[in-house]
Design a protein that fits this description.
Structural class: mainly alpha
Order of helices and strands: HHH
Amino acid sequence: MTTRSGRRVAAEPQHLSHIEALLLAQGTWEMGADSTTWSPIAKILSKHPLVSRPKSFFTPQVIPNTLWQLAPCAHPKML
């Protein structure tokens, strides 16, 4: 997301369907919550047949924020 001045700002967490939330949780559980896994998880979610969002909806920048919104106790600052 960009501001009027053209500066890049952090993406806001997205509201997910139950299926999307479960797929995100499963992908994170199987691949790990690491900066190197956000890109593969985003790719899996964007191509999953049960997800009807645009391909650009799930990005490596949005995935961690969305995950922490779903499970705040899993945030690295909480561990």
